[in-house]
Amino acid sequence: MDSKIRLLTKAVTWQVAGFFTMMLISFLYTGSVAASGAIAIAGSIAGFVSYFAHELVWSKIAWGVQSDK
């Protein structure tokens, strides 16, 4: 099972990659750096919270986890 700090680190690095991807896609649609930045920030915050919550829930579920016995 991952530690909480590992989960947090994974969530942050995932969101950094997602932020730049979302900013690029938003810029291609809007043509505005300010609008694409706002969209990317909102998406990153929502994505970070949902990813972290998702990982915490799955860390409590034993289904599909194999023990080292």
What does this structure look like?
It is a single chain. The protein has one domain (4-57). The protein has two helices and no strands. The protein is 78% helix and 0% strand. The protein has helices spanning 4-30, 33-59. The protein is elongated and about 55 Å long. The chain is mostly helical and 69 residues long.
Explain briefly what this protein structure is.
The chain is mainly alpha-helical.
Fraction of residues in helix: over 70%
Q: How would you spell out the order of helices and strands?
A: HH
Low-confidence parts: none
Would you report the number of β strands?
0
Please describe the biggest sheet, giving its number of strands, its sense, and whether it closes into a barrel.
Answer: none
What's the domain count?
1
Q: In oligomeric terms, what are we looking at?
A: single chain
Our Rg estimate from Cα atoms comes to: 16 Å
Mean pLDDT, rounded to whole units? 89
> Structural class per helix/strand content?
mainly alpha
Q: How many DSSP H or I helices?
A: 2
Distance between the ends: 15 Å
User: Outline, from the CA principal axes?
Assistant: elongated
Measured by DSSP, the beta-strand proportion falls in: under 5%
